[in-house]
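ok so for the tutorial part 2 we go from a plain amino acid sequence to predicted structure tokens. step 1 is just haveing the sequence, like this:
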Amino acid sequence: MTVARSVLLTASVILVAHPAAAQTWSRVRALAPGDPVSVTADRAPGERYFLHADDSELTLLNVSDMSIPNKARELLRSVARLHPEYFRQARANATFVWDHGVRMNAAGLSVDGRSAATLGQIVESVSREKVDEITVCHKGRGVWAHLGPLGGYLVGSLSAGLIGGLACQAAAGRGRCDSGAFLASAVGGGLAGAVYGVRAANRVTEEVIYRAP
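step 2 — the prediction. this is what the tokens look like for a chain of 213 residues:
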């Protein structure tokens, strides 16, 4: 059950008139709600999730406080992806009640009737002038990551099988090589391709999308 009224959660900021910086800041605005980000600014480090940005502000979800139960963290991350507007609406005395005893309103976040954090602790508004750098993490980028273990196995087995068959023919002659060389190479190459596909799919890379001029 959700009861909601809304008000915009904002922070005042001075916009730096710098064309290159403005172009880079557009990448910040293009982030999807719930994207994990690392922000270098005048605040304590911790996991943050993107909620909103315009030319003058950056709003983030902060669930790094260890006093927040895991079930509430997972729910808030899901809300950030699907309904980021709920955090703005909570400032206007909107009340959100979810399963597992999680409740959020202007008074803050409570779990099973106990206060877990204030709204200001979990929703941070950062002045753009105070942001030095924003980094995003990408998981599974590249062709092999998209192929994954199954695609990696197929590509690896086919490639290795062809190479093994051609190598056998080159060494022993076309008439002395049967399908055994192809199959043996295909199995080894398939396993190697599958392992590489798994690693590529789970590899996390960092990219700086904004750096203050």
